[in-house]
Amino acid sequence: MKNVVGLVGNVCCGKSTISKIFLEMGAYVYNADAAVHAIYKDPAVIAKVKKAFGKEVIDSNGAVDRKALGKLVFGWTSRMTKLKRIIFPITKEKIEKQCSDFMLSKDEMLLLDAPTLFEAKHQNVCTRLIFVTAPLVRRAAWAATRGWDVSELTRREAMLNPEIEKRALCDTVIENSGSEDDLRKIVKRWMEAL
To answer: What is the 3-state secondary structure (H, E, C) of 49-97?
Structure first.
């Protein structure tokens, strides 16, 4: 049986590590963040972002400056809504195409590493949903590697659907509080049970 598994969770909770483990164990992994990076290189998207947010979010090469855009939209619901209207229809098309290609492939599992799966209302393509969380102290340390302090982590997370809501909609919750080997064992058990 083919499964499309959605991977969501808190900001900086280790979803990328879990995706890597799924990939090692034979799942096909779709990285939504990488797809969004590519979307921001599309000239039509660049034009829409510039029109919506101004030239201050466009770098000297004419590309979208994601850091500047993030500073402008995170913490501002109306600005984030405007950005979602530009990006989410494109991500929906990409996810639907990925699922369609997967159904025609020999692969048995597609993992959608898509942090904003619920916010974009794309979760209906999934047969299973996994929520990942980690202790705040670990998340803060991982956020620091991105140059974010705890307030930035909190600001970004405030723009997402509430954790309690997403947990309730997911089939499985992974508590990322141990080592990478612990995560590998959890993923292996989960895949075997599936």
So the answer is: HHHHHCHHHECCCCCECHHHHHHHHCCCHHHHHHHHHHHHHHHHHHHHH
Residue 122 C-beta-side C-alpha neighbours within 13 Å: 28
SS3 category, 15:
helix
Give the pLDDT confidence score for residue 110 in this predicted structure: 96
CATH topology of domain 3-193: Rossmann fold (3.40.50)
How many residues does this entry show for the chain?
A: 194
- Rg of the chain over Cα atoms, rounded to whole angstroms, equals 17
Please report the pLDDT score of residue 183 as a whole number. Answer: 93
Residue 176 binned pLDDT confidence (cut-offs 50, 70, 90) = very high
pLDDT in tens, 25-61: 999 999 998 999 999 999 999 999 999 999 999 999 9
DSSP 105: S
Residue 150 and residue 144: Cα distance in Å, rounded? 8
Find the angle CA(47)-CA(49)-CA(55) to the nearest 5 degrees: 85
**Cβ-Cβ contacts under 8 Å for 8 (sequence gap 6 or more):** 15, 114, 115, 116, 117, 118, 129, 130, 131, 132, 166, 170
Task: Provide the residue ranges of all domains of the chain, joining segments of one domain with +.
Answer: 3-193
Tell me how far apart the terminal alpha carbons of the chain are, to the nearest angstrom.
9
The percentage of the chain sitting over the pLDDT mark of 90, rounded to a whole number, equals: 78
